[in-house]
């Protein structure tokens, strides 16, 4: 059955692959962008996830276009990597605001419609570093670990209404985000990945498609690693 889906940051990278994967599965898919416009064939709404009013306006457009959001994929995210000694409080709070508070903002807005419908799926795109930690990513790893606590709390609050909240923790995926890695960082990382390669964005999309499907109705509060074995299940 086709659902009304919203993917934040679905204009490029992993989010775009997720949006395309869900559209291919027969869902009505909207994506947020911050001015780049909608990718071909997808419904686009402009919203920065750090801005509650923009989020509300975007949800209203989605509701008019395809009905209340039934599947929310919280994917928008940023990095501002540097060692703790050099990390300013602004660098810390900017990443938390976009990655974690942004996920809270869209989840809260989406929960209204899901509660009314007594059906919903939250999928949060976290990261393998949420559980392993990562030097130079105190802000990012904290934001991604926070998503897990948030999803599990949502699972407890809303699980009795046919609403699930799950987390996907990708390892390294070929996108603009990982293009920023130096050759040394890339080689050191690859040596740790049993698969011996980075993921393609479509491999994250496959996991989201599953969690959004009826087959995943009894999976709640789970963290699903899609990392080629990097985190060995964590
Ligand atoms: P990209 O940098 O390629 O894309 C990031 C996306 O997030 C863009 O669509 C961007 O929009 C959007 N975005 C960023 N900040 C905001 C904001 N404040 N409001 C709205 N949208 C925003 O990243 P990836 O595709 O690689 O990453 C997607 C998600 O997957 C992120 O949450 C990331 O942390 C996570 N992840 C990525 C991994 C990787 O190896 N690439 C590994 C593990 C997790 P815009 O185009 O406007 O900038």
Automatic annotation (TrEMBL):
<dbReference type="InterPro" id="IPR020904">
    <property type="entry name" value="Sc_DH/Rdtase_CS"/>
</dbReference>
<dbReference type="GO" id="GO:0004316">
    <property type="term" value="F:3-oxoacyl-[acyl-carrier-protein] reductase (NADPH) activity"/>
</dbReference>
<protein>
    <submittedName>
        <fullName>3-oxoacyl-ACP reductase FabG</fullName>
        <ecNumber>1.1.1.100</ecNumber>
    </submittedName>
</protein>
<dbReference type="InterPro" id="IPR002347">
    <property type="entry name" value="SDR_fam"/>
</dbReference>
<dbReference type="InterPro" id="IPR050259">
    <property type="entry name" value="SDR"/>
</dbReference>
<dbReference type="InterPro" id="IPR057326">
    <property type="entry name" value="KR_dom"/>
</dbReference>
<dbReference type="InterPro" id="IPR036291">
    <property type="entry name" value="NAD(P)-bd_dom_sf"/>
</dbReference>
<comment type="similarity">
    <text>Belongs to the short-chain dehydrogenases/reductases (SDR) family.</text>
</comment>
<dbReference type="Pfam" id="PF13561">
    <property type="entry name" value="adh_short_C2"/>
</dbReference>
<keyword id="KW-0560">Oxidoreductase</keyword>
<feature type="domain" description="Ketoreductase">
    <location>
        <begin position="3"/>
        <end position="171"/>
    </location>
</feature>
